[in-house]
């Protein structure tokens, strides 16, 4: 009897010991503060919902698979208004008030341009959800971007239109922002130097433009086979496409219609009809693929977290991959004191060298010295039921 009592006592002690060790293990996980700068108010507030749903979906996968050994992530969402004037205010808050170790954010390259120096001075890494090449041309060492640049998109699109589709007469309408101008310059330069062709026409547009009669007639007169619409407004893209059909010919049967990643976003569902959208192509990192378990998981978890229960598109994929970028870097670092003066410095080094497979494709930030990790883009096409498929 005494032996049984002793045995029970020993077993209870072991249980208590293991419980204590487990508690210590959990307690040893340090909190890494992630500032998330996104629009939480105004016309762009939907993007705030998208950011949160993307991060919730990513963290569900991280927690279910126990991917973080030494750390846990805390996210603080700050309203950057989705506008240039809101970026410095948001940056100041996440750095000075919240004390973020790393940040995710901003929709526009212009927002990165006005807030990037804040992160550089504070030595806090920023993961930008933008594609404008000017963001990574500043020489900032504390910036990474979570997709390919507009230049990568332009190269991928031209390769598809010329080599795969066989078009030689291409026209361009582009927004007169930094990103739009740089992409247009790249398209014009590449089509001349690489393909020994010339654009039928190149015309800028303002973000608010909603009449493209003059541009369409010029394209028609030049005999364009394909039109590249590189803009910011999905609604404007639909107006341009309809004016092509009214003044010229059918899309895509007679005139091929393509654009930048702007035409890959879910906002297309709100501004285009299912009939109009079919056949429109775009360069993008993320394309749904039911044969890829990683992407299927992303879709299901995002849809569950999204208030509108929509499927994710390009921007959610960038945010989702940003979380796994952080997770990869933290695991590469191993256990370090988050309160040390050099924690964010070391985290930035790890982010700049991270290699991982995201839902957009393979990232290798060590391959470049400018904070770009995804250099290969895909070509997607809209199909029936607002579906997207990879065509290249």
Question: How is this structure best described in words?
Answer:
This protein is of the alpha/beta class. Helix content is 44%, strand content 17%. It has helices at 2-27, 46-64, 87-97, 109-122, 150-164, 178-193, 213-221, 234-247, 268-271, 274-277, 293-305, 314-333, 343-351, and strands at 30-38, 71-79, 102-105, 126-128, 143-145, 170-175, 202-205, 226-230, 256-259, 281-284, 355-357, 362-364, 378-383, 387-390. Strands 2-1-3-4-5 form a five-stranded parallel β-sheet, sandwiched between helices. It has a four-stranded parallel β-sheet with strand order 7-6-8-9, with helices on both faces. Strand 1 (30-38), helix 2 (46-64) and strand 2 (71-79) form a beta-alpha-beta unit. The longest helix has 26 residues, at 2-27. It is globular and about 70 Å long.
Annotate the secondary structure layout.
Blueprint: H1 2-27, E1 30-38, H2 46-64, E2 71-79, H3 87-97, E3 102-105, H4 109-122, E4 126-128, E5 143-145, H5 150-164, E6 170-175, H6 178-193, E7 202-205, H7 213-221, E8 226-230, H8 234-247, E9 256-259, H9 268-271, H10 274-277, E10 281-284, H11 293-305, H12 314-333, H13 343-351, E11 355-357, E12 362-364, E13 378-383, E14 387-390
Parallel strand pairs: 1-2, 1-3, 3-4, 4-5, 6-7, 6-8, 8-9
Antiparallel strand pairs: 10-13, 11-12, 13-14
Helix pairs in contact: 2-11, 2-12, 3-4, 5-6, 7-8, 12-13
